[in-house]
Structures are given as structure tokens and as C-alpha cells.
Automatic annotation (TrEMBL), chains A, B, C, D, E, F:
SUPFAM superfamilies: Ribonuclease PH domain 2-like, Ribosomal protein S5 domain 2-like. NCBIfam families: RNasePH. Phosphate binds at residues 87, 125-127. This is Ribonuclease PH. It catalyses: tRNA(n+1) + phosphate = tRNA(n) + a ribonucleoside 5'-diphosphate. It comes from Streptomyces sannanensis. Phosphorolytic 3'-5' exoribonuclease that plays an important role in tRNA 3'-end maturation. Removes nucleotide residues following the 3'-CCA terminus of tRNAs; can also add nucleotides to the ends of RNA molecules by using nucleoside diphosphates as substrates, but this may not be physiologically important. Probably plays a role in initiation of 16S rRNA degradation (leading to ribosome degradation) during starvation.
């Protein structure tokens, strides 16, 4: 079976990650998964939220948002509506949890890193692109904090790498990294977040049309694990380059 | 290993489902999973949201909320704070999706059913109890609509049953149906929603402390499938009784 | 004249008060006035709001809310609408004032007690049931605080008891404790809050259809005083039983 | 006993009512009860709220607000805080109910009149001044609507007059029309709304410090009835003058 | 050309400024530019916002609002809508900036003055009347603070006077101080804020219908400068009178 | 005098305008004025807001926003705070007015174009870059609508071009196109919006530190007119290139 954009079922869309996209942020990345483009910045501030003060531990959190015309038809701004929608909340929380899974709070010390993931253009998989890009921005922000001695010597706040990909069953076939058109038609839709060593951080599978059985679930998990491994390799390669401030 | 409350790892807490708990709602249930108590009502209204008008199809949606003192320390009311938190949004959306998975929109016709799940007392697993109880309230509401001829003859809007349970890894052991104390200590936490025939509607696994591998994931899925099968049997039994208006 | 539900004009609906309905709250009660059911919890916290700090005096406040399907047709959640309606505000304030009328702030010390009154099922008189039930929850919370030595020895923070009832004129006849159908048809509607010794804490009378004269007002006050006396006896009786944590 | 401002217990503060204070509004009044000054406008619009369309009946509603520096220390604007407080809600509702008590909806036809009562300077009794002034603005607005034939010929939408006054017990003495200093010290505080023929529209009594008995209640009602009779006379006299547009 | 109200193009409407209009505020003014009436109060509080603490410098800010029926048709209250509109925000900011232009923060010391400008009746030029009136209220508030030694001896917090006026091109003719009817028909509309010595604090010109050229801009600036000079003279004269508390 | 970044006083920063930056929007541009980068999209929808229906005329409006980390320190999201700040409101309104100045509503017909201007990186002059970029996106959106026959044949909805630039006085010297560091130090700050033929659409000058006189104002207007002429030339050049969908 050939996919809408000519990919094989187990093929990712072209992935690009540009570091240093902002002159202000401590870490910043423009990531694209095909036509999905997400701008991720990591902002470091000394200190932690009130409920964590005096613990000696840091904090990492995330906010996700879509620009109004990142989609095919313009959506209202959440700032204008005066409230954040459920989907936005859900994805922001997912990104935050995913990145915290590879953070050693003690090593980070009482510093806070906020990841902002703003979708400039959406074509499916915005949350998985956001997690994958945010990890790179986070890694740059941690390096920045280490250079400025905000983070204590001799202990690495990052305990691993993290990336994410969507998988789904379309017309009975399990596919990796769904674009928007595939996502709309998927019977089952799953987002998987993995560490670089292939373990799971989040598994979120939803039967959109018909419930799925264990065999289908296994096929999807196999695809996702493979995709995350590829993404981890891309992250490593991108981070190998020295970033000049 | 013996659990905090003396259960074996694969044992559910005592489950009770009282139907007809409200004289106003078309379906209503007080469900308890141990000390977790959720009040679920199903409200039927003719007509559908604007974006669905003229489609000939119905709609099912859900709202979840916790009473301020359902927890150990009092939480602020979301109505007083003026906005709904991310967790509430996320769970409301999960309940809605889970129930829509067993609804035939065409058979429901242009009617809307809203499930309200209000947690009276929380001790872990509020979202899974809510889904399991809301299904029973939904079934009663559908019967009500059929008796009043709101729903066309000869076609069943419910395509199956749905129930949910939490599972998690505590001190290295996979456990079924976590109570609050276990939930807080879990390394990995998963909520699984299944149809009565054992297929998956939602799988949401989160590594709270350390990422989990495929083997652990499989152990959790096995436990959850067993738990949902038991819950489906309880639902069937409860619904077998005739409810007198 | 016989009433809709067969009562005499000066007869209360059946009243039940179940204490200890929550395992978390310091005081908790499920109260019913006929088909009206209100869940009242009392939450004790050390400390007082900022404007009262250092005064040596405590504070008592209340929040009232109706579950969306506590009524005949489902109402929107105030948390979803993002603001609290005028009626909710008004009743929350009434409950708070009523309970503060029997509190000795000095004896309570710098502790705060919040009464949450959530209407599970409404059939008229929700605010009067809430006040009557909240008093019992408050009394249990005060006992709890005394046992834990939060409240200083030798001085009782409760200076009396408080209960409330509605009265109204329907088809020219003054009636006690209106159910919803009577309330809708009432020409005049009054809520009266009394202490156990028969004095008034609040008197709120409203001409719904036609203004009322002094004679009608007196008839309503007579009925209400009688009703509150009966409710005070029920409260005393219920509180006489020892509550085992 | 002599009062703070030299009045006898049963004496009103000086009352002034200036009609025609706005060139835009269909009715407008600047009323003062001593140092309390409230600006009341009545705005007529054809049509009624959606829930009343096609009924052939009109609607009257009110909004009360205090300017930020109408009080001794500046209060935050409710528009800036983004929500209306409970007290504001409560008073707006009271004013609306009070005026609706003298409106014949059928005679008004499908027209809406909104009363805006903005407190320019507060010194106790703002709600009672607002009701008393709003009645005069309402009467002018009704005349305006009659002249423009918005209201059908031969039937008077106003079925009577309405005025309001506060009473309270200060140092054991019942007093009429409390100024702010008296209000703060009152053991019991009551707002009474009467029609011009001496019947009650609203009676709202609150024990601020100690519960009150029937005898005290009767003394307060006597005072209030007298005060409202005086206010009704002032309203009649003011309205007797022809207002030139 | 004769204007709607008979003025010449370079003529202001009658201006009145009444000081001491509130018994509570430290400075208060009722200003009218023809039928435009704005009530301005200045509230002094010791201390400054958090971001300015410890700087030794004071702060001045402003809030502008229109009463719902200050205009020809009633507008919704911003408190009821739950948010402040863009126009209100914009004008509040303009008033604040205009008054801060004549404040020496060091001389004011760590005190805050809030100017509230509430439009009682609108007929064009509400923001310019507000600035002109607020200056007088501010001057009185500063005197008040000096008398009470809140402001240190020997240094004047006010570095000059400030006033404002609108100008516009109507049917090709530049006009001073537009009333509402002229404002609606203006091709170009400009608000100019000047110090008493004729320099500019703000110049805000907007082409409503057709862009304007440099010559037109110059003609408008000439008119505005003349108008502000006249207003400064009125302010001086009004402030020359002693205000008795 | 040499400027921070080596420019002469009358020199613009490097300006780049990339068209077609979004695959979804009908017009889209990434514009940079030096390090200030704004992403502008133009969204066309058939129909107009309710208040304009049946007029045969179109509507153009704009929304401006800054990404949280577009600035040197991270700002809160307005969607999270639940309200839009005054500055955002003010700039959105300015952009909308500026673009409407070159729109023939009749020629546009009953279509709406929304311009979204999201600041990706801020270094002074974000509002002027937004207006200049939004014009190009608007021009592309109008062409798109013409090709699809949404806009009637034979009449051009755009009556001219529009661009904007900031000017200010820094250390006594008038400068064109201030970067952030200059903006912070400016005594006077002005934003000027011009049509391509050199006339003014908006002139907004503010004395930040000291009031400015007529001579200074003239110098700033001369600089701004020159800057806008240059920007108009760049716009023309960029639009000359054919954009392939």
C-alpha cells in the first residue's frame, strides 16, 4: 500500500531540526515533521514555584499553543476567548510530563525551565513534533545553565533523551507518523513517547472508530518504537553540532 | 505481597453500583470502587449541538468534577477560580470519548446525552469509576429514550458495553485498581478502557518515576483486561434488574 | 386544604440527617427535606484569611452549588461558564452569615471552617436544608478541632444552634416548607433562619406576585418559627449520637 | 438619644431627587439620602430577552454598581477583576425584583427597561436609595414610552409606586435610615421595600451581631413602614413636576 | 462655516470644572466639555506596586470607564461581560501616561495615586475631558498628601500642568473640540495632550476616512495647541480657589 | 553620531519579507526589521460580522500577539492569564485601522479578512513591522479572493499601500526605526503609518521622559515619512514577484 504522500507504512516524514532559532531563549528550535512546523523555546529562570521552594529540586513545565491560522481554517485565539481549551491543556501537560521523565530534579537544582511549543503550521503530529523538538531546546538550555554555573558541577540534569511519534490504523493498516489526512481517517490513533534507550514514557491510544485488540496494539507499539529510535538518532546528530551564541 | 488494604495484586476493590439515585435524571448511578464514590447522571435532550444539526446523528458528551472536599484537603472550586483546570478537562474528554466508542450515532438520532460525573469522595481511580458508572447511567438513559420513542424503533444505539480500570507498578509489582496511597507511590500508572468483549477503547500509560519497558506494559495490560472483564460482568448484573421510575 | 404531597399547611416534609458521610471531611452530613438532598461538608484549616491574621479570631464561610442535574432540566456548570451566578453568590453568603451568627470567633481561635453545600437533588428549599445540615457538619467539625486541641480548652466556639425553613403563601394560604411545585406558585416566599432558642438570624421575604401586608407577614413568621423549632429538635437528636471516626 | 448626625431615631436623612440628569436616558435621576448619592438611569429598548419572546409581556431588570472611589478607601473595579462580586449581584437582583413588583408586564408590552444604579458616593443605604431613585427614573421612562406609543393606549404599566429604606438596631435602639457609621455598629440590619399603599415587597433582616426577637422585628417594621410612606410622598411630589425633554 | 452648535472652528465648548465633588476622595472633580461630563477622583495610598518597591519613587495610574447609559444607546457593562474592551484599555493607558508626564516620581516618594475617570454623559471628547479634569483632581490630591506630610518637604511632585483636546477635519475644515456628531463625520481625528507651556505629551492622529497630508496635520496641531492653552488657563483659575475639606 | 548597531540616524534596519510562509493561509509573510521577526497571516472568509450583514461591504480586522519568549525574559501567555492586556489590544486595533485605511469595503464585498500578526522575536518596532508585513499578506489574500471570484470583477479592493515605522529622540537626536535598546532610552517615541503616496494614516507620538516641541515633532515626521517611502518600495518589489501556490 502506498500512502497519500508516497511513504511506506513504517516511514517517518522528513524531519528537520534547526537549533538557535531565537536570540533571546536559552534553548530554541524550529522542528518540522513534514509540513508540521513547531517553534520550541526553553526559558531558564532561577527559582522554582512556591510549592517547591526549599526542596533543592528544580522544575520543568511546558505550554503548547497553535497559532490561529496554523490550521486549514482559522481558529479563535484562546486569549481572545479568555480560556484555554481542553485539548491545549491536555497536550501541554503531556509535553511537560514527557520532558520531566528525563530530568534529575536534584541535579537541576532550584531552577525552572519552561518549554513553549507554538505550532506555526499544522499537518498532524503536532504534539509529537513538539516533544521531540522541545527535548533539543531543553538540552541546549541545560548546557546554557551549566556554562553559567546555575547548575552544580559534576552532575548531569538530563538522565536520557526523549522523542515522540504518532501511529495509527488507517484502512486496516498500521502506519507510522500520520499526516493530517491520515489522522482524520484513522480508526485508531496512538501517541507514543520513548526514551532514547527504547523504554516508554507515555502510551496514549484511542479508538476513534472501532475498539482495537491486543494484536493491533502490538503492531502499533512496534512501529512507534522504531520511529522513536530514528528520531533519537536525529536528535543526537543535531545536538552534536556546536551552537554558537 | 500483601497490599495496603489486604488485596492480592490482581484484585479489584469492592464495587457497588446503585441505579436510580436521582429522581430527575434519565439515568443515574452512585458507583463506588472501595472508598471512591462517583455520582453519575445521564441527561437526555432532544436536538444536537449546532455543528451537528441536520446530520441525523446524535451526540454524547461528559463533564467530570470533584466536589471541593472529596479529597483529603479541600480544593478550590473551579467555578470560584473562574476556570477549569487541565486535569478536569482531560478527564471529561476521556469519559466522553470512552462512551462514544459504544454509541451508534445514527441509531441515537438527533438527541444529545450529557453524562455528569461528580466525585463525592476520592480514593484513587475516580476516572475509571466514573466511566464504569456513567456507562450504566447511559444505558438507563437510552432505555428511557426508547420507551418515549425519542429513539427510532428497531435499532440499538448502544453497540456494546464499556468499563475502565487503573493499573500500575508499585515497588516493582504490577497491581490492579490502585487506591490513592498506591497511586501516589506508583512508578508507572495506566488507565485502560475496554469494551465488554475485551477490546481496547483507550490505553493511557504514564511513567511517573521511571520509564517502563514492553514486558511491564504487557503485564499491566493483562491485569487491566482481567479487571475490565470483571467490571463488565458487574455492569451486566446490575442492569439486569428492572428499574422502576 | 390538602397540599400536593398530602401535608397540612404547618407540616414539614420528612427530614433525615446522616452524619459522617465523608471519610475526608472533619464534619459531613447528607440532609434531606423530602426530595431535596444536600451534601454538606465542613473543612477545618489552621490559620485565617489574610485580613484577619493576628486578630486571634477565627472565620467561617460557605459555598453553595447545585450539581448540573440536581434539577428537572440540566443546568450549565458554573465552572464551565467561567462565572458564578447571582443566585449562587446570594445563597453562599446567606449560609455563611447564618452560621457565623452562632460562632464565637475568639473561642474558635485563628482557625477557618469552610462549609460546602452541594445540592445533589433539588425539590424546593435547598438553601434552608443547606443551612440546617451545615450546622450539624459544623458542630462535628468543631468537636473534631476540640479533640485535636486546635481550639483552646474551656470555651465553646458554638454559641447556639441554627436552622432554617421556607414559608410562603400559596393560593392565599400560608404554608410551611414549600416543595418546588408550591414554590413556583407562591405569591409570597420567605426564608427564615432561627437560632435554637427561637430568635431570628435572617428573615428574607419576597413578594413574587403581589405585595403582602403585615398580617400575612405575621402568619408566615409564626409558621417559620414553629418549623425551625422542630428542626432544632431534630438537629439535637442527631447530634446526640456519638460519631465514630 | 441623639444620633451621630443629630437626627431622631425615626427621622430620614435629607432626601433630594433630581430628574432629567442625563440627556440620553429615557428616565434619569440623581438621588441623595444624606451623603449617599446614586445616579439612576432607565433605558427603554423595544423587544425582550429571548426566553420571553412572543409572550406579549415586557421585562424590567437592574444593574447596581459602585464607582471605585465612592467609598472611604478605593475598591477595585469589578470590570478589572473580571467578575462581579456577590454583594453587587445580590443588590442588582433586589432592585430588579423590587421594581418588577409594580409592573404590569402585559401593559408594558414586549419592551425592556433596564435600570442602572451607579453609586457616586456611599454613606450607608445605597441599595435603598437606588430603589427609591430607580422608581422615579422608571416612571419617567414609562411616560416616555407612552408618548412614543411604544406602550399600548389605555393601560398603565405601573401598578403602584415603590420605595425602600434601611432600619437597624444600634446600641439597643431601633433607628431609621442608617448612615454608614450607624450601619457598621448595628446589631441588626434590615432593608424594607414597600409599595406606596404600605404593603411589603421585600423584607430582608440580618442579625449582624446578636439574633433578634419578634418584638425587635416588629419595632423595625414599624419604623420602616413610616419611612417608606414619607419616601413615597417625596416621589409623588417630584414626579408631579413636568419634565421638559 | 457655522458648526452644529454655533461655534466657530477654533472655539472650545463651554468648560466647567467643579472641585471637591466627593467627600471621600483626596481629589475629585466633575468636569464638563459641553454635554460631555466626566467624574474624576484621585485616590492616594501609601506604598507602590511590588515592581517599584524600594525605589524611593511613586506611581500614578488611571482607569477610565463609561457608565452604561452615558451614551445614546445603552452599552453592556464591562464588569458583566467579564472583560475590559480594547478602547477602554487604550484610553486608561493614555490618561495614565499623560499625567505621569508631569510627575516627579522621586518627589512623590513611595506613594501611589490612582485617577478614576468615569464618564457620566458622553458627547465626544471624553478622553480629553478626562485628562483635563484628572489633572485638577491630581493637583488636589498632591496638596492633600503634602499637608499630611506623606510627601517630603521642599520638592514639588508636579512638574507642570497638563490638558488635552480633540481636533479633527470635518467636511474639509479643521475644527477644535469635536462634539459627538462632528466626531462621527470627521475624516481625520486627533487627540492632543499638551503641557501648560505648550509642549506635546501625546499626539494621536487617525485618518478615519482618507489619509491626511502634512499641511492638514499642521493645521490640526495649531488648533490643538491653542485649545490646550485655553484649558490650561481654566485649570489654573479653578485651582487658584481654596478648597475647604 | 553612530548608533548602537552602526546605523546612521536616518537608516532603516535590514528589512526582509518572505511571502508564502504558510501553506494554509490565503496570504502569509515572515517579515523582519533587523532582529524583530513577525509572522503575518491573512485569512479570508466569506461573510461579515453580524452588524455588517446585508451592507454589501466587507471587513478587515487584526490580532497581534507576542510569543511568550519573543522577548528577553519570558512573559505570561495571555490565554493562560485569561485576559488580553491593554498593550495587545491597543496594537491589534492600530493594525486593523491602518489596513482598513487602504480598503474599499464595497469592492471587497461581504468578505472578511483577518490579519494575525504573531511576534516570533522582538527587538523594537514590532507593531510597525506587523503593519508593514500584514499589508503584503493582505495583498496576497486579496489576489487569492479575486482569482476565486469571491471579489467582484473590475474593482480593486485595495486603494493603496500602507507601511509603518517608529521614530524617536534618543540623547537629543531624532532616529529612524528604533531597536529595543534605543526604544528604552528614547525621550520621545513615535509610530507613524503612511500610505505609499506619503500621506498619514496614523501618527502616535508619546513623550516618554520630557514633553517635545513642534520643531522636534517636525524632525520626527520628516524621518518617518522617509522611512515609510523606503518600506513602500520594498513592499512593491516583494509583491512584484509571482507567488506560486
Amino acid at each position: 500500500m502506498s500512502r497519500i504522500d508516497g511513504r511506506t507504512p513504517e516511514q517517518l516524514r522528513p524531519v528537520t531540526i534547526e537549533r538557535g532559532w531565537s536570540k533571546h531563549a536559552e534553548g530554541s528550535v524550529l522542528i518540522s515533521f513534514g509540513d508540521t512546523k513547531v517553534f520550541c523555546t526553553a526559558s531558564v529562570t532561577e527559582g522554582v514555584p512556591r510549592w517547591r521552594k526549599g526542596s533543592g529540586e528544580g522544575w520543568v513545565t511546558a505550554e503548547y499553543s497553535m497559532l490561529p491560522r496554523s490550521t486549514n481554517t482559522r481558529g479563535d485565539r484562546e486569549s481572545v476567548r479568555g480560556k484555554i481549551g481542553g485539548r491545549t491543556h491536555e497536550i501541554s501537560r503531556l509535553i511537560g510530563r514527557s520532558l520531566r521523565a528525563v530530568i534529575d530534579y536534584k541535579a537541576l537544582g532550584e531552577n525552572t525551565i519552561v518549554l513553549d511549543c507554538d505550532v506555526l503550521q499544522a499537518d498532524g503530529g503536532t504534539r509529537t513534533a513538539a516533544i521531540t523538538g522541545a527535548y533539543v531546546a531543553l538540552a541546549d538550555a541545560v548546557s546554557w545553565a551549566q556554562k553559567r554555573k546555575l547548575v552544580k558541577h559534576g552532575r548531569q540534569p538530563l538522565t536520557g533523551t526523549v522523542s515522540a511519534v504518532s501511529v495509527g490504523i488507517v484502512d486496516g493498516t498500521p502506519l507510522l507518523d500520520l499526516c493530517y489526512e491520515e489522522d482524520v481517517r484513522a480508526e485508531t490513533d496512538m501517541n507514543v513517547v520513548c526514551t532514547g534507550d527504547g523504554r516508554f514514557v507515555e502510551v496514549q491510544g484511542t479508538a476513534e472508530a472501532t475498539p482495537f485488540d491486543r494484536k493491533e496494539l502490538n503492531a502499533l507499539l512496534d512501529l512507534a518504537t522504531g520511529g522513536c529510535t530514528e528520531l533519537a538518532a536525529i536528535q543526537r546528530e543535531v545536538l552534536a553540532a556546536v551552537l554558537t551564541d
